[in-house]
Specification:
With about 400 residues, the chain is mostly helical. It has one domain. About 60% of the residues lie in helices and about 5% in strands. It has 14 helices and 3 strands. A hairpin with a 3-residue loop joins β2 and β3. α6 runs antiparallel to α8. The radius of gyration is 21 Å and the shape is globular.
Length: about 400
């Protein structure tokens, strides 16, 4: 049984690692892709298959990682009392919120004045942990039903709007606000759906107990994955509830498919979550026996996702600063007051998408030895409590 437990954790590390690597592709594209400064990669009228896929594949990162954060919370809770787990989640949630606003924010902009403050994925994970700290005290089955109610029901809130209401924007509507001396706050990741995804992960974390046979878990996750994908096609095809932005028919089949497979992400609609979590569950149900050198490489990143996340932002931004200097734009243009793709001074900056992939691979390779060394350090120093927050 101990062997099964180790293999189980390896599959989770594998998925975390894959998510981290794919996520870096999207962020590299933001800072390096020439076309990113002119149009949205998901626009059916302007994009092409290569650009669209590069953006689309990264949609899986946030839902998968939020789900896995819930799974990890359950596994941590197996060694703690409910009270201890709640305290841990509260502390870690507050820590992640602070990290988003200060460390992550500075990495995106390199602006000591913090003129723009997007509340992104790390922030949403932190807030979701604060909610989960309370939800774990519900009857266990109730956690599942609450999660499903949030995921399947939150689109009922789509037509509710409150003008200039920060609380509502934090909960369910991506909006911009001017705060604290003219700083721009963006509620990039409204939290209601993410709370449901994390608590869903917490519930399914129970299937990683040693008393659960691996084959039972694998079959269940595979069925859930297939069911979610089929439901995505049905709900998206009906083109009514589940996504406020309906898909449209275009002149070509490819453009229509671009529209169909582009459900709303901010906040994540029901169809977006069915599409992404369906693939996530399919992977979890069919990856536990995967082995090999490539698997081990991904697991290196998956063991230290927070460390990797922070480093990759700074490395991408520093690399973009170097490219700007080498191509005549000057490194100072990368001291940003707004999101990089909205800077007019960068008109004409950037690389062809093929070269963006080269830069991405180079960044991931550069991070590998650092992540491997830090992962070993965490393994060798389990007595250091603060490593649990990294």
């Amino acid at each position: 049984m101990e062997k099964i437990a180790i293999q189980r954790i390896q599959s989770l590390d594998l998925l975390k690692g894959i998510v981290m690597v794919i996520m870096a592709l999207d962020h590299t594209r933001d800072y390096f892709h020439y076309d990113a400064f002119f149009y949205k990669s998901s626009d059916p009228l302007q994009t092409d298959a290569f650009i669209y896929f590069t953006r689309w594949i990264t949609h899986f990162c946030a839902p998968a990682f939020c789900l896995l954060a819930g799974v990890s919370a359950y596994l941590v809770g197996m060694r703690k009392s409910k009270k201890e787990l709640s305290i841990f989640l509260l502390k870690r949630g507050i820590w992640l919120v602070l990290v988003e606003v200060v460390i992550v924010n500075f990495g995106w902009f390199f602006n000591i004045h913090f003129g723009s403050i997007p509340l992104g994925i790390i922030w949403s994970l932190g807030i979701s942990m604060l909610f989960l700290a309370a939800m774990i005290h519900l009857p266990f089955k109730s956690i599942l039903w609450c999660s499903l109610l949030i995921i399947f029901g939150h689109n009922l809130l789509d037509n509710i709007h409150f003008e200039d209401n920060l609380l509502w924007a934090i909960l369910h509507e991506q909006s911009r606000f001017t705060i604290l001396g003219g700083r721009k706050l963006l509620t990039a990741y409204p939290i209601i759906p993410w709370v449901g995804v994390m608590s869903l992960g917490y519930y399914f974390g129970s299937f990683y107990q040693k008393t659960i046979e691996p084959i039972k878990r694998q079959k269940l996750f595979t069925l859930i994955g297939i069911g979610a994908i089929v439901l995505f096609v049905v709900v998206r095809g009906i083109n009514s509830y589940g996504n406020p932005n309906h898909w449209q028919s275009y002149d070509t089949i490819l453009q229509t498919l671009f529209s169909f497979f582009n459900p709303r992400k901010y906040p994540p609609s029901l169809t977006f979550l069915l599409m992404t979590l369906g693939i996530t569950f399919l992977f979890l149900g069919n990856s536990e026996k995967l082995k090999g050198r490539l698997v081990n490489i991904f697991r290196v990143f998956g063991k230290v996702p927070f460390f990797y996340y922070i480093l990759h932002i700074y490395l991408i931004h520093l690399s973009a600063m170097l490219l700007a200097q080498l191509t005549g734009f000057g490194w100072k243009v990368m001291l940003l007051k707004r999101w990089v793709t909205g800077v007019p001074e960068l008109d004409g900056y950037g690389l062809h998408l093929s070269w963006v992939y080269v830069v991405w691979i180079g960044i991931v390779i550069s991070l590998y030895p650092l992540c491997k060394r830090f992962g070993q350090y965490k393994l060798d120093h389990k007595e250091k409590w603060w490593l649990g927050y990294l």
